[in-house]
Amino acid sequence: MENCIFCMIAGHELDARVIYEDDTVLAFDDITPQAPVHTLVIPKTHFDNMSADVPVDVLTALFSAVPKVAALKGVDQSGYRVIVNSGRDASQSVAHLHVHILGGGAMSHGMVHFE
Ligand code: 5GP
Ligand code: ZN
User: Fold this and answer.
1) Which one of the listed residues 12, 96, 98, 113 is annotated catalytic?
2) Fewer CB in 10 Å around end: N or C, the chain?
3) Which residues, chain by chain, have CB under 5 Å from ion ligand 2?
4) pTM (2 d.p.)
5) Is 59 part of any domain?
């Protein structure tokens, strides 16, 4: 997809600190980290968000990469939070499906904050 920053990162046209890569997904550190560890996992092909048109093999690859990335970032033992913001109400800001991995310190129990 043209003008999509995550497609550009997936195509190595835009720089990112890449943590993990396979045929289907790429993981890289978030540019504005909200935790000591904040890494994003994306499918290399473009999907806007967590919609029904995302093939099961892509979802499998995406979520299979999560524990691998957590281990590479050193948070697999301490724990981490996995978040997917999908669509307007979730304040998704980049319209290319991505999984947030957050860790590196204790987080509060809640995960939903309505405005
Ligand atoms: P969302 O709000 O869509 O769930 O999350 C998008 C995330 O992408 C944000 O945490 C934001 O900091 C991150 N982000 C936006 N642009 C870039 C970029 O160019 N490079 C990297 N590494 N992260 C980005
Ligand atoms: Zn894209």
Assistant:
1) 98
2) C
3) 1, 4, 6-7, 46, 96
4) 0.97
5) yes
